[in-house]
Amino acid sequence: MRAAFYAAQGPARSVLRIGEIPTPVPGPGEVLVRLRVSGVNPSDWKSRGGSRPMSEPLVVPHSDGAGEIEAVGAGVPNTRVGERVWTWNGQWKRASGTAAQYIALPATQAVRLPDDLDFAAGACLGIPALTAMQAVRLAGAAPGTTMLVHGGAGGVGHYAIQFARARGARVLTTISGDAKAAHARLAGAEETINYRTEDVGARVAALTGGAGVDAVIDMDLAANAHLIPRVLRPHGTVVVYGTGSVEATIPGLWMMLSTITMRMFMVYELSRQDREAGLADLDRLLRGQGLIHAIGRRLPLDAIADAHEAMEKGQIMGNVVLDIP
């Protein structure tokens, strides 16, 4: 099968290769998916760049993808053959991800894709949408609550705004420019705050009558922890799904005195209960046909280095996907 892969970590254009590798065979409890689209996420270029050691001598990157089940292993019903699916954790703790024509993975990690949803949208669900869903669930979004979503124009943030709004919450979000503000408003953000030109704490205070928001959904704890006392009300919640540094300094005393709850998670390591709840909630929204799946760039598999470089430089607003030949 044709695939993108790397045998050493380093810059995208230096280590990523395109070529033929053996087609996988589904083992017991697995399905073989003929991939049509592969989703690119920040964790993919970070892993390729060396954020964590390689687990195998050759790695096919990317965890997100969508396609059709072509074969099943022992214990999986043959009725699943031909099913349109999207994948999660395709390359997590495994050598072979979705930047290829085929992937074999546990049947539970291939989720039925609604018939009216295209494969490009399906390739955005495993990390961006499920991360957003878990964050919104932990944040307690509900009618009468106000959320601050950091990075509302990003892949996760754009979904988080939509999911919080679907639960009846009011959403404020930080952005870094007019185009990103418009993008976030399209998802349902009531107010946007340009963190490069505005005082985020002052704007949040003005927008909440000085009370602060009920919850913060944060994609970079190391960069944004100092804002917590200025934007969050007492007894509020901080939900963290990412950080730009190994360590982060938090306003611990203020958080303790204000009885703040901090919830941290990594989408790859959700508990079975959280995963199932998130998948069920996401499926209901997908079938409601109201979600916006923001595709910022769509490229062929052979242009994987371009995709990684663009994402690494923060040039893309929305998700990046690769069409598989």
Detailed description of the structure:
The chain has twelve helices and 15 strands. It is an alpha/beta fold. The protein has two domains: 154 residues, Medium-chain alcohol dehydrogenases, catalytic domain (Quinone Oxidoreductase, Chain A, domain 1), CATH 3.90.180; 142 residues, Alpha-Beta Complex (Quinone Oxidoreductase, Chain A, domain 1). α2 packs across α12, α4 packs across α5 and α4 crosses α11. The chain is globular, with a radius of gyration of 20 Å. The mean pLDDT is 96.
SSE blueprint and pairings:
Blueprint: E1 2-5, H1 12-15, E2 17-20, E3 30-40, H2 42-49, E4 64-72, E5 84-87, E6 102-106, E7 110-112, H3 119-122, H4 125-139, E8 146-149, H5 155-166, E9 170-175, H6 178-187, E10 191-194, H7 200-207, E11 213-218, H8 221-224, H9 228-231, E12 232-240, H10 252-257, E13 261-264, H11 272-287, E14 295-300, H12 304-312, E15 319-323
Parallel strand pairs: 8-9, 8-11, 9-10, 11-12, 12-13, 14-15
Antiparallel strand pairs: 1-2, 3-4, 3-6, 3-15, 4-5, 5-7
